[in-house]
Model the fold of this input.
Amino acid sequence: MSSSENGLAVPHSLPRDATAPFNADHADIILRSADGVDFRAHKLLLSMASPFFQAMFSLPQPNPSSLVPSSDVKKDGLLVLLFSEDEHSVGMMLAYCYPRALCPEPVVNSVEEMKRALHLASKYEIPEMETAVVRRLQAEEDVPQPVRVYMVAWSLGCRKTVVAAARHTLRTPFIAGTDYEELDAVPATALARLVNYRAACVEVLRDCTTNLAWMQPDLDNIQAQCSNEACASDETTVRDLFWKTWWAEYFRDAYQILKDAPNERALTIPEAVASAVSKASQCSDCRVHGTVTAAISVSSLRLSQELGKRLSEVELKTPF
Done:
C-alpha cells in the first residue's frame, strides 16, 4: 500500500506529543499528523472502529523506508504512521474510534466540520463519523447551508448523510442559482434529484392540508363543527360534514406559508394561527365558546406528526 493510497504522508521534523487520551504509555502505535503531532493509539480500538485500520494492522508492515525515513521509523519502540491530515483532523478521527468514556464526541456544528468528518469517514472507513453528521442534521438546531453538506455527501457516496441533508434543506426555502464550491464535485443529477425530492415533499404537504381524512380520530376533541351556518366551510369536508371556515382555512394557510419550506418543525405557524383566531372572532358562537385555541393547538400538533411521517416516506433517488 503506497503512501498516496493510504493517506500517509512525508514526516515533519520536531514532532510533539498529543494531549490525553492520546499520550498513553500503554499505546502500541503512533499516528503522526501532517503538522507534526504524535497521537499514541491502540491498534485494537482502531481495528474495531475501522475496516481500514483492521486491514492495515492485519497485513505485514510495509518496508519502513517506503513509509518514513529509516531514522524515524519508530519512536519509543512504536511504529510511527504518518498522515496527510492535520492535528485537528487526526484527533477528530481518533476520537470517533475511541469509547466516549475516554474522550468526548467532537463537535460538528459547522458545515466545514461536517465536510471534514465526511471526508475522514469515507477515506478511513469510520461509520461512526458519518453517523455523527446524520445525528447533527436531525437535531433541532438548524445547520447553515445544508445543501453544501448534501453535495459533499453525494460526492463521497454517503447515502445516509445525503438523505438527512436533503431532509434538512426542507427547513428553509431553496435558493436556485446559488454558486456553492461543492457543486464542482457532483454531477447535475445530484442537484436535479434534490429539486425533485423537494417538489415531492411539497405535494405531500398539499395532500396533508387538503385531504383531511387523517384528522378523523381527533374531530370530536377539537369541536370543529359550528351551528352557525355562516361559519360553515363549503370546501373542506371530513366524514361528509361541513366544518368551521376558520378551521378549514387554517390548513390552507399552513400550505401557503410552508410550501417553500415544507417541514413539520415549522408548524407553530404563528401567521396561520393568528389568521384563524381573527376569523373565529367573527363568528358569535366560536367567539363565545372559545374553541379556536384548543382546535388549532390539536390540529397543529397532528399536522406536524402527519407531515413528519409522510415526509420520512418520500424517496430520494441516488445511484449509491
Summary: Strands lie at 16-17, 29-32, 37-41, 74-75, 78-82, 232-238, 241-244. The chain is about 50% helix and 10% strand. Residues 46 and 179 are 38 Å apart (CA to CA).
